[in-house]
């Protein structure tokens, strides 16, 4: 910590030229997002517990040479529903958007009901997404059980 009268030291992170930045991730969730994306072979910068005027604390991930599929975006929306994604092209933001859960998720999360057909047979999971009072619930298409976001397992 800088003493009074001394200039603050800044840590600069090298900007990416082509890739993605996922910002406004809830504090402590960046490593889950990194696991979803399997970022083993990319240049990655992960910021944990960064100060934020919007969220108090947040996480952020910068990944060089990476794009995102809709499938990955759906998983990120489950783990980090307030995240924003910036697509970087030639060191500039080419597109920026907030993640959003679709109305239906296919083969993205697992049904917790041991008697559900998706647990017994090799059937693609399907869940309808219900966002009531800013809380997301996931209802299995097959057994019709609903689960809050904290009780689901991502495939």
Strand order of the largest sheet: 2-3-1-4-5
- What is the subunit organization of this protein? single chain
Supply the CATH architecture of the largest domain.
Answer: 2-Layer Sandwich
CATH class of the largest domain: Alpha Beta
| Helix content range | 10-25%
Strand content: 35-45%
Number of domains as seen in the coordinates: 2
Count of beta strands: 11
Uncertain segments are none
Task: Give the helix/strand class.
Answer: mainly beta
Largest sheet: 5 strands, antiparallel
Q: Please name the fourth-level CATH homologous superfamily of the largest domain.
A: Aspartate carbamoyltransferase regulatory subunit, N-terminal domain
**Shape by Cα distribution:** elongated
Radius of gyration: 18 Å
Look up the CATH topology of the largest domain.
Answer: Alpha-Beta Plaits
- Average of the residue pLDDT scores: 89
Spatial gap, N to C terminus: 42 Å
Which key features would you list for this structure?
single chain; 155 residues; mainly beta; Alpha-Beta Plaits; SH3 type barrels; 5-stranded antiparallel sheet; 4-stranded antiparallel sheet; 3 helices; 11 strands; 14% helix; elongated
How would you describe what is shown here?
The chain is mostly beta strands. The protein has two domains: 19-98, 2-Layer Sandwich (Alpha-Beta Plaits), CATH 3.30.70.140; 104-154, SH3 type barrels. The chain has three helices and eleven strands; from the N terminus they run βαββαββββαββββ. Strands 2-3-1-4-5 form a five-stranded antiparallel sheet, with helices on one face. A hairpin with a 2-residue loop joins strand 8 (126-132) and strand 9 (135-140). Helix 1 runs antiparallel to helix 2 (70-79). The radius of gyration is 18 Å and the shape is elongated.
